[in-house]
Structure to design on (375 residues):
């Protein structure tokens, strides 16, 4: 759909065919799977109908030269330098735009070089299995009678965009601008599942945080990076769409296409606002998690302190009793020595004296430790 609206086969918006005009060309073949690199699909359209499906760039150029008013839509997937150079030579693409398309890793932007528009988009796709957001880069060259798309990733599904446009010939007859707006709509619509996936991840993180999961901090950090990357992909599109809307009147863009453009802008604004909210929410969650972790650490420290205090108290008791029991042992050891000349050995009251001495020392130690609170 374009601008959130489905194309209507045979009755879409745009210029209607005259009574004497008949559809031209053959039914579109199914879109092939993306190869390792190179041209994915090329088609030449006349009045919104597929006229030819060239198998190579040279054949595409020839078809364009043979038919006035024809439009070529060339889809490339990670092309080599020779293919980009050939397109640049045929359609007179600017060197800076060609260099960007070859190197990739560009920020989303829209630049005009004469009659040619160079557009860089960053599509996003949510991977349910890995719970991660995958970003891919898409470059578009839009000029009089041609559209060249250069993909550096799996998203977006341009084959689906082509099939939908081909079912609405009046819409496709609007020319390269219709293709540009349809692709913009596909990219923005692709953001919706990503927003839903991120929202679900944030809900799970909240459960982890309040559940005391120690891995929550790592996941919050990873998700925050994804949200920031998503902002970098989506937010520049607002400026881009505003620029397209501002230039629509100067270049005679169809009013219906302008409505589609405004609808795409509305959808993108909602996405950007929700993603901004995600970023603030993650910052708050990170703050709450840090607070909860600090509280947990404080509780653990209090528990360790209490355990240490209890252990010290027990150690005092054990040490006190050990000292009390050591006193009679010491006395008994002294009188247990095998010396001949010990005055107390032959004393009649020696045994009683030893017992009394043991009791006196033990009692004294007990009173001392009791007073100090060790017992």
């Amino acid at each position: 759909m374009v601008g959130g609206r489905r194309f209507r086969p045979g009755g879409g918006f745009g210029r209607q065919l005259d009574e004497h005009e008949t559809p031209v060309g053959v039914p579109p073949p199914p879109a092939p799977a993306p190869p390792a690199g190179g041209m994915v699909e090329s088609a030449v359209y006349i009045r919104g109908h597929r006229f030819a499906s060239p198998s190579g760039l040279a054949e595409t150029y020839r078809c364009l030269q043979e038919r006035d008013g024809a439009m070529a839509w060339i889809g490339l997937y990670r092309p080599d330098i020779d293919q980009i150079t050939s397109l640049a030579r045929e359609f007179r693409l600017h060197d800076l735009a060609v260099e960007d398309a070859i190197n990739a890793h560009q920020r989303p932007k829209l630049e005009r070089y004469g009659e040619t528009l160079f557009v860089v988009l960053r599509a996003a796709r949510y991977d349910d299995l890995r719970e991660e957001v995958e970003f891919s880069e898409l470059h578009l060259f839009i000029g009089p009678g041609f559209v060249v798309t250069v993909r550096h990733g799996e998203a977006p599904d341009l084959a689906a965009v082509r099939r939908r446009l081909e079912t609405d010939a009046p819409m496709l007859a609007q020319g390269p601008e219709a293709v540009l707006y349809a692709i913009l709509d596909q990219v923005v619509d692709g953001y919706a599942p990503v927003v839903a996936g991120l929202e679900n991840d944030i809900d799970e993180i909240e459960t982890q945080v309040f559940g005391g999961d120690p891995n929550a901090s790592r996941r919050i950090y990873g998700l925050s990076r994804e949200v920031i990357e998503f902002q970098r992909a989506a937010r520049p599109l607002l400026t881009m769409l505003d620029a397209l809307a501002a230039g629509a009147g100067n270049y005679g863009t169809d009013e219906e296409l302008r409505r589609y453009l405004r609808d795409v802008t509305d959808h993108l604004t909602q996405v950007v606002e929700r993603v901004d909210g995600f970023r603030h929410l993650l910052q708050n969650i990170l703050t709450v998690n840090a607070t909860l972790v600090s509280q947990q650490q404080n509780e653990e420290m209090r528990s360790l302190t209490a355990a240490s205090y209890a252990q010290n108290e027990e150690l005092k008791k054990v040490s006190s009793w050990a000292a009390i029991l050591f006193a009679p042992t010491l006395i008994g050891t002294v009188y247990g020595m095998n010396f001949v000349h010990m005055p107390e050995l032959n004393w009649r009251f020696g045994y009683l004296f030893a017992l009394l001495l043991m009791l006196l020392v033990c009692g004294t130690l007990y009173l001392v430790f009791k007073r100090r609170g060790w017992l």
Summary: Residues 255-335 form the longest helix (81 residues). Residues 109 and 251 are 19 Å apart (CA to CA).
